[in-house]
Design brief:
Length: about 210
């Protein structure tokens, strides 16, 4: 009952949810997700056109001068670490994966800077594999709505969401929860006065009367 109300409301707010990272190729998307860690999609979208215009292939990226990469991606933060990830990711895809980002989770997890959340986002968006990536928005909203406990770790949140929602909804739900957390159920000053889930929300009182 609670889950159908959530789905209904999210469908009304986001009937066509889309990932907000821009990309043209599989490896560009994977790298964009890696760059988005501890950053925002907006910032990532401001650097990736410069990055992929300057380095137009996996070969160019793996051979790129580290300083040049760092200067381009500086706005997204942790730029030294992320520049080294980009070079190594490009090398692995080019040298070991025939130039194609693999669908194999066991292979993907060996890529530097690529963890479970990144893999879920990539597989779900690019290859339509049912998956729920639990980022900061998904975690916060799930806990506020009582879909998970406050002290659950991200893997537990993911498992609980998988149990509560049909598999064919997972990828769409992930996008909707991200957008809901980003634009409505924000970390600070969520828009509870305007939210139709207020009666099932664990945090509404606190936020409504702050
Ligand atoms: Fe988020 Fe407020 Fe809605 Fe609860 S009532 S889900 S805290 S916006």
């Amino acid at each position: 009952m609670k889950t159908s109300k959530i789905i209904e409301y999210l469908d009304s707010l986001f009937p066509n949810p889309k990932c907000e990272l821009n990309y043209n190729k599989d490896y560009e998307f994977l790298i964009a997700i890696v760059l988005s860690a501890q950053s925002t999609d907006k910032r990532v979208n401001s650097v990736t056109p410069i990055l992929f215009n300057k380095f137009k292939s996996l070969k160019a990226l793996k051979m790129a001068d580290a300083n040049e990469l760092e200067n381009i991606i500086r706005p997204v933060g942790s730029f030294r670490k992320k520049a080294s990830y980009i070079k190594e990711i490009a090398r692995i895809i080019d040298d070991e994966c025939n130039g194609v980002v693999p669908t194999d989770r066991d292979k993907l997890v060996t890529f530097p800077g690529v963890g479970r959340k990144t893999i879920n986002v990539f597989l779900s968006e690019y290859y339509n594999v049912p998956a729920i990536a639990v980022d900061t928005h998904v975690e916060r909203v799930s806990k506020r709505l009582g879909l998970a406990k406050l002290d659950d770790d991200v893997l537990t949140v993911e498992r609980k969401l998988q149990k509560k929602f049909d598999k064919n909804l997972w990828s769409r739900l992930h996008l909707q929860l991200v957008l809901f957390g980003r634009y409505h159920c924000k970390a600070i000053k969520p828009e509870c006065y305007n939210c139709k889930l207020v009666d099932i929300c664990k945090e509404k009182k606190k936020n409504l009367f702050d």
